[in-house]
Structure formats: structure tokens, C-alpha cells
Amino acid sequence: MNHIVTVQDAVTAFADFMEPTDAELDAIEQEMPVILADVDLLDAQIVTLDRTPTELDERRIRRARRRALAARVALVNRAAGATVPGGAA
Questions:
Q1: pTM for the whole structure
Q2: 32: number of Cβ within 10 Å
Q3: CA-to-CA separations, 27 to 30, 40, 68, in angstroms, rounded
Q4: What is the Cα–Cα distance from 11 to 9, expressed in whole angstroms?
């Protein structure tokens, strides 16, 4: 008995439409500071999951939150600056 096997996954796994476009890669690059700041915040929070946070841990989390917020604000400001003609706010 011969088994019928599908090769669709092997054929479409490397299709062009599966790769990110240049626009998507540019968007990821623009958001990279926010992503890295969020990773730092998660790292600071993960450290304190299994123990009571010390004063140093709390400072690290506060700093990471401020960096994440600042990165988000900078991203929003860049996006708003790019869409508003003439620099009007």
C-alpha cells in the first residue's frame, strides 16, 4: 500500500510571501528601542518573582519602567512628527 503524503508545507515553507517585507522590517527596526526597553523591564520583574523585592530591585524596576515609557513616547513622537506636515503640533 502506498501512502499519499502532502508536500505543501515543504513547498510553501520558503515562499516569498512568508518573508517579512522591507516595510515590516523597517517598522520592527523603528520599534526596536521599545522592544528592548520592554525586555529590560520584564527581566527586572522576573528577578523578583520568587522572592520579596529588595530596595535595589524596586529601583531597577522603576528605572526600567521609565525607560520603557520614554522609549514609547519617543516612538509616538517620531510617528506624529512624520505624519504632521509643517511641524504643527
A1: 0.68
A2: 12
A3: 5, 20, 18
A4: 5
All residues at 6 or more sequence positions from 86 whose CB lies less than 8 Å from its CB, including other chains: none
Q: Which of 63, 58, 39, 40 is nearest to 48 (CA)?
A: 58
**From first to last of its 89 residues, what are the pLDDT tens digits of the chain?**
676 666 655 555 566 677 889 999 999 999 999 999 999 999 999 999 999 999 999 999 999 999 999 999 999 999 887 765 665 55
Count of beta carbons in the 10 Å neighbourhood of residue 33: 17
The answer to whether 52 and 4 have CB atoms below 8 angstroms apart is no
Range list of H helices, 1-89: 8-12, 22-47, 55-83
Cell of 80: 506624529
